[in-house]
Automatic annotation (TrEMBL):
Its cofactor is Fe cation. Fe cation binds at H57, H59, H101, E103. The gene is yhhW_1. Transmembrane segments: none annotated. Belongs to the pirin family. It comes from Brevundimonas mediterranea. This is Quercetin 2,3-dioxygenase. It comes from the Bacteria. Residues 151-230 form the Quercetin 2,3-dioxygenase C-terminal cupin domain. Signal peptide: none annotated. Keywords: Dioxygenase, Iron, Metal-binding, Oxidoreductase. The lineage of its organism: Bacteria, Pseudomonadati, Pseudomonadota, Alphaproteobacteria, Caulobacterales. Binds 1 Fe cation per subunit. InterPro entries: Pirin, Pirin_N_dom, Quercetinase_C, RmlC-like_jellyroll, RmlC_Cupin_sf. Residues 12-118 form the Pirin N-terminal domain.
């Protein structure tokens, strides 16, 4: 089962400095049919104007993954962490018992990110933050694990939940498979390009809610960059 969610159908709001689209109910956008997908709670498609960003604000008991599509995001938090994550790379914040953070676009141009929230399996633990580069060449033609709650994914950023975030870059005509399992759910978004997912066509920034599919096969119609969350 694959449900295409066209980009044009997403909720959202344009705040001037932030143009946000929401794949699931968030802030002032509410759709009872789009509350979550398994333990995946939020997938926001954010465009942040140069020299602006999210001022310090708190979170608790949530795994927050930021995938940078274009530009860069600069992070600071109440633990003293500071870092800059550039396009194609990922940062992970485990909010745990509580953390305050800010996310700014300190670049001269627009920054585009996917902000993904997943419900944690473990609660009441100390907050943490981390970032890591993932060269696009290493995920050319195949899915690479970026962040994971599974012990076997040693090269990925760690998250405290039953989920995995993977990504692939595909040239036009190429395909990549992801072994999902019929008891799992996935949510997939092409950051760039047109693709087919098990025969269902998606344009850039469309969403695909996937269930009861043993294998997810992505075929690139044009050069594409794909992000997938494997959720409980």
């Amino acid at each position: 089962m694959i449900e295409r969610r066209p980009f044009e159908s997403l909720g959202g709001a344009n705040h001037g400095w932030l143009n946000a689209k929401h794949h699931f109910s968030f802030a002032n956008y509410y759709d009872p049919k789009r509350m979550s997908w398994g333990n995946l709670r939020v997938w926001n498609d954010d465009e942040i104007a140069a020299g602006t960003g999210f001022p310090p604000h708190p979170h608790a008991d949530m795994e927050i993954i930021t995938y940078v599509r274009d530009g860069a995001i600069t992070h600071e938090d109440s633990l003293g962490n500071k870092g800059r994550t550039v396009a194609g790379d990922v940062q992970v914040m485990s909010a745990g018992t509580g953390i305050r953070h800010s996310e700014y676009n300190a670049e001269p141009d627009l920054t585009r990110i996917f902000q993904i929230w997943i419900e944690p399996t473990k609660r009441g633990e100390a907050p943490s933050w981390g970032t890591k580069p993932f060269p696009k060449g290493e995920r050319s033609g195949q899915f690479v694990v970026l962040a994971s709650g599974f012990a076997g994914d040693a090269d990925a950023l760690s998250i405290r939940t039953d989920a995995r975030i993977v990504a692939a870059t595909l040239n036009a005509g190429d395909s990549a498979d992801y072994a999902l399992g019929s008891n799992r759910r996935a949510y997939l978004v092409p950051a760039k390009g047109e693709i087919e997912v098990n025969g269902v066509r998606l344009n850039a920034r469309d969403g695909a809610a996937i269930a009861q599919e043993d294998v997810v096969t992505v075929r690139a119609i044009s050069d594409a960059e794909v992000v997938l969350v494997d959720a409980a």
